[in-house]
Write a structure and sequence with these properties.
- The strands form 2 sheets. The protein has a 5-stranded mixed beta sheet. A two-stranded antiparallel sheet has the order 1-2.
- It has helices at about 15-25, 25-45, 75-90, 120-125, 175-185, 210-225; strands at about 1-5, 10-15, 55-65, 95-105, 135-140, 150, 155-160.
- The chain has 6 helices and 7 strands, in the order E-E-H-H-E-H-E-H-E-E-E-H-H.
- It has about 230 residues and is α/β, with parallel strands linked by helices.
- Helix 3 (about 75-90) links the parallel strand 3 (about 55-65) and strand 4 (about 95-105).
- It is about 35% helix and about 20% strand.
């Protein structure tokens, strides 16, 4: 295990442990173990990590026979591994995303994209929003589009293979970094010019400053209130 301590925030990369978990444990067990590790590390180094805010996520693998670019090739196992890395990135803010369902989602039949229609508008026109009913943050994977991903209200959309610019200290988990970035938008964070920041566009940076962490946690709590299931009276 390699520990990184930065600006009072403890980060870790559990390489061998992580690979063992991917092969031998369920998503729920892995998330629980990672949370336990964060607690142990914080006590060991005398740092106080705020209570973990857990947000539910539903993942949809868009499927389309009509448009190959909409047809995601990402598997459930790959999604689970991506979220391991997403949660490592967001551990610096004490936010964890717990995946519930990972299911294929049949795209609407839509006309071929025509200029000047923006990629995000064309992609969203193919997503059957009425199927995104779970009380969760929704994430859609598609095969390819111009941007690596986008979030303009539900759902966050990420493509199967992304292209990022490497920066010093950045992550080598590129799809996870893109998804973590889009989830940052879901938590109200805006783009940053600092290349090592998670909210920089198209880089491998993943740091967050104290103000961003505070804002993300505030919005995460708002999401929790919004996603609370309605209790029958």
């Amino acid at each position: 295990m390699i520990l990184h301590i930065r600006k009072g925030v403890i980060q870790f990369k559990a390489f061998a442990f992580r690979e063992f978990c991917v092969e031998h444990t369920s998503v729920m067990i892995r998330n629980s173990i990672l949370t336990l590790l964060l607690t142990i590390v914080s006590r060991t180094f005398g740092e106080e990590i705020s209570p973990i805010i857990t947000l539910p996520v539903s993942v949809h693998l868009l499927q389309s026979e009509q448009h190959p670019n909409l047809n995601s090739n990402t598997s459930k196992a790959v999604v689970e591994n991506i979220f391991l890395h997403v949660n490592q990135i967001w551990s610096q803010a004490g936010v964890r995303f717990v995946v519930g369902e990972i299911e294929p989602l049949k795209a609407f039949q839509v006309p071929a994209q025509r200029w000047p229609q923006r990629d995000r508008n064309w992609v969203k026109s193919a997503i059957p929003m009425d199927k995104l009913t779970a009380p969760a943050i929704h994430v859609c994977f598609i095969h390819d589009m111009g941007p690596n991903g986008f979030y303009y209200g539900q759902p966050a959309v990420v493509k199967d293979v992304v292209k990022l610019r490497n920066v010093s200290g950045g992550t080598d988990q590129h799809v996870a970094r893109v998804l973590a970035h889009e989830l940052g938008h879901a938590l109200s964070l805006q783009h940053r010019e600092q290349h090592t920041n998670l909210m920089a566009s198209a880089t491998t940076g993943f740091s967050l400053n104290e103000m961003e962490i505070k804002e993300a946690r505030r919005l995460a709590l708002s999401w929790l209130n919004l996603l609370k299931p309605v209790v029958a009276q």
